[in-house]
Amino acid sequence: MRKKMMMLSAILLVIALMGTACSSGGDKGQSPESDVESKGFTNGKFDPPITLTTVGSVGSNYVFKNGETLENNVHTKWVKDNLGIDIKYNWVTSGDQFATKVRLDLSANNKMPDVIHIYDPQLMSDLIESGKFMDISSAFDKYASPKVKQIYNQDPMYWAQVTKDGKHYGLPTLSRAQQNDTLLWIRTDWLKKMNMEPPKTFDDLEKIMDGMKKTDFGTGPVNPPLAISIKDANMPFVQWRGDASWIFGGYGIIPHYWNKWNGDKLEYGSVQPQMKQALAKMQDWYKKGYLSADVGLIDVGKSDDTFRNQKSGIMTGPTFQASVVRSALNKNNPNAEAAPFPIPAGPSGKPGLRNTTVPGGAFLINKDFKHVDAFFLYINKMYEIGDPPKGSEFENGYAEGYDYVIKDGKVSSVEADFPDKQKVNVASYFLSGQPFVDPELELNSYVKLYNGEKPSTPFETRMYNAVPESERKDPKNVLEWKAAYYTLQQKDNTLANLFLGPPTPTMKSKWEALVKMESETFLKIVYGKASIDEFDTFVDKWKKMGGDQITEEVNDWYNSVGGK
Amino acid sequence: MRLRKNAVLYWMLLPGMILVFVFHYLPMAGLVMAFQDFKPWLGFVKSPWVGWENFQMAFQREDSLQVVWNTFFIACTKIIVNLVVPVVFALLLNEIRHMGLKKVIQTLVYLPHFLSWVVFGGIVGDILSSQGIINTLVLPSLGLDPILFLADGNWFRFVVIVSDNWKEFGFATIVFLAALSNIDPSLYEAAEVDGANRWRQTWAVTLPALVPIVIVVGTLAMSSVLNAGFDQIFNLYNPLVYDKGDIIDTFVYRVGLLNSEFGLGTAIGLFKSAVGFIMVIIAYVLASRFANYRIF
């Protein structure tokens, strides 16, 4: 009897285990949307609501309040109530896991969501090549609003990433123009103490860095004076903050970037002869201790930390670094003063800095999605409320209590004015995780404010309200506005990456080896572990190991998308 | 008859067998990717066949031999160090008579085993950075210049081996401690009667009793002769130490996953498995010949 019971339980256990092993991979039977032509698009609202599936990721900087999630929040509710679109997330993961999870879905042949927003260019090209996504050219012509069309027709290169055989396999998402253009952020109180002017040239900068190392500012030794990070194994010198590419820009090239450095053909920046001089300069700076001894080991967050903790006097980064100064540096030392400055001129006689690539990611639309009109309704509406007219419900921001509050009858988006001291970037809940605005709008508005003009549109008012009232009185010294002003000023010195296409055939098989050799050689030169002449050997090898072939292919791509 | 008698036991074996089959044998079908230009959306059936091209590509690279050698060197050193240190430590710990103290030490040394390399790598990186305690306190007090441990290839290998040992030796010690507690006390009594001191007892009784378990652990470790530890290297390495620290797994990660060259990645992985398989067979033959150790 006892034996039988044991047998029975053993069998049950086995069956239970087998059950769990086999039950995965169900949940695929999503009923197709009804084919009936709905009047939703023309009415501006789908009734009954239609479902739009997507997948999403939550970055470490995401903030949720009121128990909300990416699946269910003030934005998704608004979209459902006002546009009749029920956004459903098939899954949500952390930001760094997103691409891997999409790849797994692709490998497992899982059903792709209706709409997917992708940044990773390799993954994007794989998805487009998989044939699971649609050519949206005609849908764009049919459904995009005049405003959206105007924005997207500003530059044909916006579409470069999603173009295959002349067709548009997705809607690119546009970041703000120049948004990642680098500036130098310098401790102005330290400059004053040393009796020095902001740098106009690399020589000035060297004097400042040298001075910082030798001066006692009462915060311990300055080490390193210049906070940058060259840890990234793929593009060590090009970073969104902690950037070092401007050092090379001073010699007229940007490493890792494809541009017409000499003549009318795209060439790879890292193998140009100017690179050698710039590397020698970095080697020299490293030896002199202007850079952290760990510059190749710390990431951009850690390199910024040295500025925050008053170990460094100079950091690099775009407009948004204002928040590092305002919220981090000043928390450590309320009397610390820092301000943005344009990139100084290098030995070429001119400054040079990398340009921000405007098309960041792209929306791809599933071939089987029946409501591409609903997707465009969403896009049209989002561009509309991104720059709302006066009197719109979005005049002050996307959602009261989230990105703005009304305090004492006045609109404010300063975090300290929030009852719970918690401001939320509502745009992170959008399908693309970023606001939908004309790429050129933000910078121009900032500069208007910098020049002392009062905000005239709701969009400008929003930006105005994000700065504490006490600072607004002196518009020329509001960090963001000043940074924007300099960014626009140095716009002509930017150097762009003109290769935005998918990896070319030779890149697919050879690029990893080339990048490995490149990063290893360059970092060893900076660290003084390799002589500067190693650079020539590297260039020779690079060309032989597929570099020349890749250059041809990149130029073929460039000509095929109509690059000029 | 015996089969029927033990039927229940066989049934209980089944779940484990199924798990092994599903997670270890079934995925082997994916090895066909090594001979294909694999595209996820085409699957195994429709992806084009390319023969040995992926293997040729992998071994044509001038760094491939270097990578294999790095892997082999780091893995072998780890195997040896991770065998010697726990055995010595277990012997020392076994001499402690105070049970409480023994337990506390044992627990403390095996705690790091439960940290992931993301965390542990961060700790190691901080300690060894130019601003870390080694470079700001320890080395200056010894009158030595700072060393950039993670930026120098040879120091990098040293750090990899030592930090791996630091993290894992406590856990490995447990196995040997268990073996030590199984030694028949009458052997020690007999040795004492014969006039052996503690040193002699260790040499003549304890060590011979440990040999079989050391061989088992060593044999099992042979399979990882090309397993230098992806998690660890990935969290510690950087382009400055590629020449001494890039291993097969990090290489496969960059080529196979980041570059979506699944075929090439699989080919290298298959090569690694084949070498591991051969090494296990050799180690097993040696173990059964010299130590009379048999699994089958």
TrEMBL record, chain A:
Keyword Magnesium among UniProt keywords: no
Keywords annotated in UniProt: Signal
InterPro entries in the cross-refs: Bact_solute-bd_prot1 (IPR050490)
Signal sequence region: 1-23
Keyword flag Signal: yes
Name of the protein this chain belongs to: Putative aldouronate transport system substrate-binding protein
Organism annotation: Paenibacillus rhizosphaerae
From TrEMBL, chain B:
An individual GO BP term: transmembrane transport
InterPro entries attached to this UniProt entry: MetI-like, MetI-like_sf, UgpAE/MalFG_permease
CDD domains the UniProt entry points to: TM_PBP2
Main localisation: membrane
Keywords, sorted A to Z: Cell membrane, Membrane, Transmembrane, Transmembrane helix, Transport
Topology relative to the membrane: Multi-pass membrane protein
Subcellular location: Cell membrane
Domain (ABC transmembrane type-1): residue spans on this chain: 68-283
Family stated for the protein in its record: Belongs to the binding-protein-dependent transport system permease family.
Identification of the protein by name: Putative aldouronate transport system permease protein
Lineage: Bacteria, Bacillati, Bacillota, Bacilli, Bacillales
